[in-house]
Every structure is written in structure tokens, then in C-alpha cells.
Amino acid sequence: MADRMDFTRTDARTGLKRLRTVPKLNGEYPARIEPGKSRSREKIAQPLRKLLGELLAGKKRLPLVISGPPGTGKTCAALCFADAVWDAYFLSFPDLVQLEFAPWDQQNSMRRELERAELVILDDVAVGVETENSLRLRREVLWRTLDLRERRANGQTVVTTNCKRDLLTRAFGQAVESRMFCGTHFELLGVDQRLSRPHNG
């Protein structure tokens, strides 16, 4: 990838030049993914930090799937990884599905971003209680996105999910599993860091 910095160092400076995403309806970005904002690495578990460094050095293969319970630092790790590359595009899976109902020009703009970005972060791929039609739509959107990234960007994608691999396979099928898990998988364990924060007041 573009930057081969030592990811095991928590003081390493960001190499990110552009982190693009779909803004909220009011035009603002979620605070943690503001373009140009660098994130601290010391909260990332050391084994995962080591793995991210190996991915940057080309010793491990992308795509990367980071799975684990809510609040264990999956999105934080993915964003820190994005900080080490030149150009990245962040998109939550629920937002990606909703874009299917957006105007055609907005859909085309999103697809161009998915095609050209050096790295794409697909956040929060989940399986919920849904109808067969909604599941079919989510399956198609996920397959299409992963297939596009595999063909146009050699699979340089990071996926975060709260779900186990077998649940994702049952919900989305083997064609999605093959594209999502053809690289590296890391399962984060631990407690919800949001719930373990000290309560003030």
C-alpha cells in the first residue's frame, strides 16, 4: 500500500490525505471520521496492531475482516489503518443499503468512490431480523460491493462486523463469504469499552 509506516508504533504520524464518506443529512460528518483527523493507536490490542502493520507491509493479504462484540474497538482499528494510507473511503453498511433508494446520480457518485479509493472501510456489516426481500437486497448490495473491490482494487477493503463468520455465511451466502474472507480475519474479544468508561456525574 501507499505508506509502509511501522504500525506497531503508537506515536507514528498519519499518512492519510483524504478520508471520504457519506455525510449525514445535515451535511456534517460523524466526529470520529472527520477528514484529516488522526486517531490514537494505543487503544488497539497489540496483536491486532501487529497484524495491521503486516498488512501495510504486504506480509498479510487484504481484504481484512475485523469481527467481535460491540464496543471492542473494531471501527477504531479500521480507521487507524485508514490513517496509514493515502486515500480511503468510509461507508457504513446500513448507509450503503439505503443508498439503493437514493437518486441515480448519488448512487453513481458512490460507486465511483468505491472503484477509485485505495482503501474502502465497510463498517457494521450485520444480520438482523428482516424480511426475505430486505435480506435479498442486503445480500445483493454486499456481494456487488465486495466483487467491485476485488476486481478494481485487488480487494483492498476492511470490513467490520459484530457477527460470526457462520452467521454471515448463512445470511449472505457462500459467494459473499468467498469474497469477504479470502484475505485475513481477526476476531476481537473483550468487554464493551463504551460501557466500561468511567461515569462522570
Give your account of this protein's structure.
This protein has a domain at about 60-185: 3-Layer(aba) Sandwich (Rossmann fold), CATH 3.40.50. Strands 1-3-4-5-2-6 form a six-stranded parallel β-sheet, with helices on both faces. The chain is about 40% helix and about 15% strand. It has seven helices and six strands; from the N terminus they run βαβαβααβαβααβ. Mean pLDDT is about 80; it is low at about 10-15. The longest helix is centred in the C-terminal third of the chain and has 22 residues, at about 130-155. With about 200 residues, the protein is α/β, with parallel strands linked by helices.
Describe the secondary-structure layout:
Blueprint: E1 18-21, H1 46-56, E2 64-67, H2 74-83, E3 87-92, H3 93-98, H4 104-116, E4 119-123, H5 132-153, E5 157-161, H6 165-172, H7 174-180, E6 184-187
Parallel strand pairs: 1-3, 2-5, 2-6, 3-4, 4-5
Helix pairs in contact: 5-7, 6-7
Strand content: 5-15%
Main β-sheet description: 6 strands, parallel
Supply the CATH architecture of one domain. 3-Layer(aba) Sandwich
**Helix-strand pattern:** EHEHEHHEHEHHE
| CATH superfamily descriptor of one domain | P-loop containing nucleotide triphosphate hydrolases
CATH topology of one domain: Rossmann fold
Helix/sheet category: alpha/beta
Identify the overall geometry.
globular
Task: Give the averaged pLDDT, no decimals.
Answer: 80
Order of adjacent strands in the largest pleated sheet: 1-3-4-5-2-6
Give the termini separation: 45 Å
Which CATH C-level class of one domain is it? Alpha Beta
* Rg of Cα set: 16 Å
